[in-house]
Structure formats: C-alpha cells, structure tokens
Amino acid sequence: xxxxxxxLITDVAGLKVGNxxxxxxxxxxxxxxxxxSFTASAHVMGGAPGTREYxxxxxxxxxTAVDALVLSGGSAYGLDACSGVIDALRAxxxxxxxxxxxxxxxxxxxxxxxxxxxxxxWAENPYRDLGRQALEAAREDxxxxxxxxxxxxxxxxxxxxxxxxxxxxxxxxTVGALVAANPVGAVTTPGNRHFYAAPFEIGEEFGxxxxxxxxxxxxxxxxxKVTAMHPRENTTxxxxxxxxxxxxxxxxRVATAAHDGIGRATVPAHTPMDGDLVFALSTAVRPAGNVxxxxxxxxxxxxxxxxxxxxxxxxxxxxxxxxxSTLNA
Length: 329
Hints:
This protein is of the alpha+beta class.
C-alpha cells in the first residue's frame, strides 16, 4: 500500500473537500461532496456525540445514498452548517426526488470548540453560512491544519486541526481519511515531540521523527487542555472513503474498523467526554473490494491523518495551547 498522489481523501476519485472558517470565531466547517451521491454509513464510539441525520445511515434504514457529509465546530450550533449545504445543493438541483420535491441528504457531526478563546458572542448562528461557504470552496486540493472544522481544535497538549491521508491498495482501489481532531487525549507522547501515530507514518508526512524510543507509554494523563478549559471540550470526527463498491452494511463495518485509527493516534481515545464518530462512504466506481483490507487501510489512514492535523496546525492570536510546530521549531 502506498499513499495516493495528493495523500488526501480526494485521491478517491470524484470527491471534493471544502473548508470555511472564521478566525475571530476560532471555528469553522468542512464539507465533503461527491460528483454524485454515494453510499454511506457511520459508527460512534465516543460518549458525547453530536450528529444530524445519523440514524438514517444505519444499515437497516431505507436511505441508500447521501449527497454530502459535514464536519463542523460549534457544538450543537455547528449542526446548522448542514442547513447551508442543503440550501446550496437544492439550488443546484442535487438531492433525492420525491414527487415535485428535491431533498438533499446531508448528515453531519460536530466537535465542541466553544471555549477555545474565540469570539462566540454572535447575534445570529454563523454556521449555516459557513456550511454554504465550505461547499462552494470544495476542491480536490485543500489545506490541512487550522482550517475548516479543525480551526479551533485542541488535543490534550497541542493544537489539533484538520488532517487527511490516503492509501492505494494492491488491487488498485483507493482509501482515504479526513478528520477534525479535537480529542480529550494526547496525540503526542510525553515531551510533545513524537506522535503516537509514528509507527504508521509514511515518509515524512508528519515530520519523520519516528516512534518515541521510551517504553511504558500511555500512562500519563497530563493535559494542558483540561487545565485551560472545561474537560468536555472535545471530540474527533472523521470520514473515511473508498472508490471500491461497498454495501451500506459494509460501509458500517469499515467505519467501525476505522476507529482503530483514533485509538492508535490518540491516548486515551473514545472517552465518555469525546463524541468520536467515523463516517464511511463508497463512491462505487470500482468493483467490490475486500472489506477486511479496506477497513484496515481506513484505520491506517485515519491514524496518519490525526497526526497530520496536529503537525499542520498554525498559531493564531488568543490560542490557549501551543502548536506542535512551535514547540519543535
């Protein structure tokens, strides 16, 4: 397996990603959209999720495809980003047709970034506009780090952010991951230099420093984040995708397997104070794939994407936590 040409989820042909953010707000939204609708499911392993249209993604529900997926900051307010995406898709004629009605289906998930130092004293919820802006900005090439849904993200010790990674499998299918990493846990080992995801790094995609040579890792619960803020300001939300043809049930299985990537890159993961969620989608432009291999590749991509999110984070005025790049300059 090797990364695709961009090492982004958009190496899965037909997908585009757009980011929109407000730097004074220290928050934003990320939208993934396909050239056509796609099969999708999702799985939650955190104790505090915030979602929209999550139930319709269950394998036993009748909906067979959705039009876009949204990752957003803003906690419950951020779910309104989906409304902005729906407005724009409907205007473009996208959505399921029921009689004379056109209904875009846009599931979304949010992370909590309301206490990260940004100006949240809005008179009108800003996330609907951010959702529309993110959709309009959707491209195959997009920025990582302190952008989109990752703008105000924080890990236990350093700023989090938006990350992505991809792999091409031996059978030719492509798998990619997109993540907004804002966990309770740490993505760096004690000392803030090495990433927990280092054993899965390819090349120097997040610094090339290799694994921490220390043993006995994972026992420290040190957290600048908990010291600086309320401990409920958390959650890692992600999308994994493949061009191989998968059923809705198989997408659910891939979403479940991909959660291993959160566990490999974040210590601890899936806590009661995280809303950890992974969407999984299939664009179905290639023949049916090996679900075991695709799920494993998705977990590897997600682990790498989480590290890339923190690695690419950039400082801004009013930050409560330092960036990895600042601590390791």
